[in-house]
Amino acid sequence: MTGNQLRLRRAGARDVDYLLDLQVDPDVAPFLSAGRAATREELMEEIQRSLVEPEAFGRLMIEAPFEREWRLVGAIGFERANKRSRIARVGGLAVHPDFRGRGLGKAAVRELARVLFSELGYHRLEAGVYGFNERGMAAIEKAGFVREGVKRRAYRPAGEWVDAVEFGLLVDEF
């Protein structure tokens, strides 16, 4: 899965340490779902599921070219939300702080959308972002998603209730 400035690949066992380090980074952790896989074992289960059910679930690594080599710059994922209606939920976007400000979040979301629509046959993509995550909302909107609503005080990631802003993207809008 390759775009102009990055590529996505299925995560493997060799990526677990990177994923663990990324999602506990203090500049990343507050913006990720509190219900995400948080242990080595849970991540390995997700990676295995991604390999066994490639059309229904994806734990993907984001790579970008830097200094003549492809480097890991983050992660993203998806999960089928409705098989009959061909809806997938995009989530888990995390760009390492060292690589922010280069449009990689938007590019990763666009590349994932391209794959989900053109290669896996999805009709609709959905994404939810914590209401305080301005950078995440900007990346999703710049990738073409439309803001569809707010789930008020829907989640409690760090002991405080927060809104979730919901977005959608249809295949014919892409």
How would you describe the overall organization of this protein?
- Strands 1-2-3-4-5-7-6 form a 7-stranded mixed β-sheet, with helices on both faces.
- Strand 6 and strand 7 (162-170) form a beta hairpin.
- The relative contact order is 0.15.
- The chain has a single domain (7-173), classed as Gcn5-related N-acetyltransferase (GNAT) (Aminopeptidase, 3-Layer(aba) Sandwich), CATH 3.40.630.
- It is 27% helix and 36% strand.
- The chain has 174 residues and is of the alpha+beta class.
- It is built from 4 helices and 7 strands.
Number of helices: 4
- Low-pLDDT parts are none
The proportion of residues in beta strands is 35-45%
Structural class category: alpha+beta
**Strand count:** 7
Shape: globular
CATH class: Alpha Beta
Fraction of residues in helix: 25-40%
Shape-level CATH architecture: 3-Layer(aba) Sandwich
- Compute the number of structural domains: 1
Q: What characterizes the major β-sheet?
A: 7 strands, mixed
Radius of gyration over C-alpha positions, nearest whole angstrom:
15 Å
| Mean pLDDT figure | 94
- The largest sheet has its strands arranged as 1-2-3-4-5-7-6
Helix/strand order, N-terminal first: EHHEEEHEHEE
CATH fold descriptor: Aminopeptidase
Terminal CA distance reads 17 Å
